[in-house]
Design brief:
cell membrane, Fluoride-specific ion channel FluC, 5 helices, membrane, ion transport, FluC
């Protein structure tokens, strides 16, 4: 006589629970998974076109505003104005609700593209280095510090302006 059939057990020693049957695979191709934004050519082109516009705007501003007492006021103005406008843009878009494809395109074209090209950390770094190399340590530190602190405050002011305007517009 043979042994009785062995029952499957869990590690705890109890009987194993049977697995539920898998649902049948629906016919047709697998559902498409959306590609990340940075892998979509159309969105990358929006960012590039916006960046070109913003960079030209910054260049024009820098040409129109020559340095004053060693301060690169063109870059400082671009960075502070851009930070303010980015605060405005992101608050406006955020108040629209969840991001839709249209909101995503606006954010990437205007925020990442135009304002990313208009503002410039690389020029801030280069101008700070040039001031340091020229021995203008106080001007370099003042310029870099003012840009960073005032940039954060400018972005917060942009958010606050939209929030205040939204509050007035909704009858609050």
């Amino acid at each position: 006589m043979g042994r009785p059939p062995r029952r499957a057990t869990r590690p705890s020693g109890g009987p194993a629970t049977p697995r539920p049957p898998r649902p049948p695979h629906p016919p047709g191709p697998e559902p498409a998974v959306p590609r990340p934004a940075h892998r979509q050519a159309a969105l990358a082109l929006l960012v590039a076109a916006g960046g070109a516009v913003g960079s030209l705007g910054r260049y024009g501003l820098a040409q129109a505003m020559s340095p004053q007492h060693g301060w690169p006021v063109g870059t400082l103005t671009a960075n502070l104005a851009g930070a303010f406008l980015l605060g405005v843009l992101l608050e406006v878009l955020g108040r629209r609700g969840p991001e839709t494809p249209g909101v995503q395109r606006a954010r990437l074209a205007l925020g990442t593209g135009v304002l990313g090209g208009f503002t410039t950390f690389s020029s801030l770094a280069l101008e700070t280095e040039r001031l340091l190399a020229a021995g203008s340590v106080g001007t370099a530190l003042g310029y870099a510090g003012l840009t960073l602190v005032a940039g954060v405050l400018a972005a917060a002011a942009g958010v606050a302006v939209v929030a205040a305007a939204h509050g007035r517009g909704s009858g609050r």
